[in-house]
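Narrative progress, year one. The postdoctoral researcher (J.K.) led the effort to move from monomer predictions toward full complexes, under supervision of the PI. The following entry was the first complex the group processed end to end, covering 577 residues in total.
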Amino acid sequence: MITIQDIQQKTIADLFEQYPFLPGFFEENTLEVDGQINEKLDDFLNILDDEEEKENRAMDKAQVMESMAEYITQMLAFLGEDEDEGVNSITLLPGTNKSGEKEEFEELTINKSEIVCIVGPTGSGKSRLLADIEWVAQNDTPTSRTILVNGEEGDKKWRVTSGHKLVAQLSQNMNFVMDLSVYEFIELHAQSRLVEDVEGVIQKIFEQANNLAGEKFSLDTPITSLSGGQSRALMIADTAILSKSPIILIDEIENAGIDRKKALELLVGEEKIVLMATHDPILALMGDRRIVIKNGGIHKVIDTSGDEQNLLSELERMDNVIQNMRTRLRHGEIIRQEDIGF
Amino acid sequence: MNLVTVSGPPSSGKTAVILKTIDSFQKRGLEVGVVKFDCLYTDDDILYEKAGVKVKKGLSGSLCPDHYFVSNIEEVTQWGIKEGLDILITESAGLCNRCSPYVKSVTAVCVIDNLSGINTPKKIGPMLKSADIVIITKGDIVSQAEREVFASRVNTVNPGASIMHVNGLTGQGAYELSTLLYDEKVEVKTLVGEKLRFSMPSALCSYCLGETRIGESYQMGNVRKIDMEEKKKRS
C-alpha cells in the first residue's frame, strides 16, 4: 500500500518514471505539470495552498495527495494480478422463487469456455439472476442465492471496484456514442486497461471484428457510422479480447450482419464464461445447457441433447437460406424458388 | 434516522435511481422520505408521492442552489426526524460543476451518466471527487468498452469511491445500492456543527466567505428558507 509519505518528497519526474500510469491521473485531475517536472510533488501542490487557487480549482492539497496514493495502490494491485488468479468457474447455490419455494436444482457450476443459455418469459426473473451473479450474492439478495467463484465464497471486490467487474454485458440496445474512429476507440479502451502492446491489440480486435461482420469496415471508420451488424461485431471482438470481466452476458444477438456462431467461438476461445439470454433456437442450441426461469426462480436446468444438436445443423441450413436471400436482395437480384432449396 | 445526499448533473437519472432504490427500502419495511432541491421548477415530488414516500421540495430560484441546500439541510433533517423516517434522501441537481453539496458525516452519492461524455469526470469538482458512492447510469445503451472507459475515468478522479452501475429503467443494481445506503446502527440527530466536505462556490452570504459550519447562527446575508409547514391541498 502506497501512502502520502511514500510520494510527497519525490519529484514528479521520478514518480512518472516509477509509475508510468500516473500522468493519466494528473491529466484527469487537471494538474498541468509543464516546466515543473523536476519539482517535488509536495512543492508542486503548494499551488493549492493559495486560498483563491484552491477555491477556483475546487481541490485540496491533502485530498489530492490522498487520492493519488490510493490511485497508485489500486493500479499496482491491478497490474500485479496474475492470470492464475482468474475466474475458472462460478457456482450457483439455490435460493427461493417469488413464492418462497426452494429453487429446483442443487448446485450449478459453469466453467470457463462454457455457454449457458437463460430462457423464460419476460418478468420471470432473468435480470435478477444476472444481478445476483454480478453482485456475487451471498445469501444477501431478495432470492437468497449464493454465488461461488472458483468454488469459494466470492470476494466483495467484485461488487464495487471499477477494474474488477465480474460481468461484461452485450445487448441489442447498445450503441457507440463517442466521436472516434475504430482505431482511436480500441486504442482508448486498451489504454484504460493499461495494455502494453496497444498496437497489437488494435490489430487483433480489428481483424476479429471484421471476421465476424458481414460487411467489412476499416480502421478509420467512425464508430458511430458502423452498421448494426458491424457495431455488434466490434463490441463482441473488443469485449472478448480487451474486457477483463471473466463472464460475458449476452442479451440476444440479432441475426443480421454478423456471424453469430463465430462470435460465440471467439468468446469461448478467449476463455470466457458465456451467459446468453435468448429465445432464438439457433443460439439456444449452441449452448451447452440452458437454465429455465419461472416465477423468479430456476425451474430446471436442461442439457442440450444429442438430438437437439442434430437439429441445430438443420436449423442452420434454414438460416443460411434466409441469409442468402438477404444477400441476393442487397445486390439487386431476383428471389427464386431454387433459392429455398427444400 | 439515516441521511443520504444524492447529487449529480441534471438529467443524469438521479430521480429514477432513487425511485428504484426506494422500492427496495419499502420491501424491507423502511419508512423513506425525500427532499427534492431544484432551481426553477420540478414535478418530481409528484413521482415521489406516487411511490408512497413523504416528500418536500425546495426551489432555490435566484440563489445558488448549493447555498440554498446547505442553508436548509438542518431544517430538512429535523423534518425527517419529526416524520419518523428511517431514511431521508436529499436530491439536488449539481447545476454547476463547482457544486460541493456533501456534508462530512452524511453518505454522499453522485449520479453521473455514460452519455455525458468521457471528459465529464474531469470537469466535475467536489460533487464527484468527494462522493462516497458513484452511480453510473444509462449503461444499457452504450457499449461495454465505453462503460469500462467511463468507469475508469471516474475511478481516476475519485479512487476512494465505490463505483456502481444502476439501470434507472429496470432497476438493475438498485437493490444492491440500497444495501450500501442504509445502516441501522447510524442515527443522525442534527447536523449543527457538522462541516461540508469542501467549501461551496461563492455567492453573497456567509458561505461565500468560506463558512462551512451548518446551523442558523452561522448564516448571514442572503439566506432563504424552505417553508417546512404542511402545505395546503393542491388545487
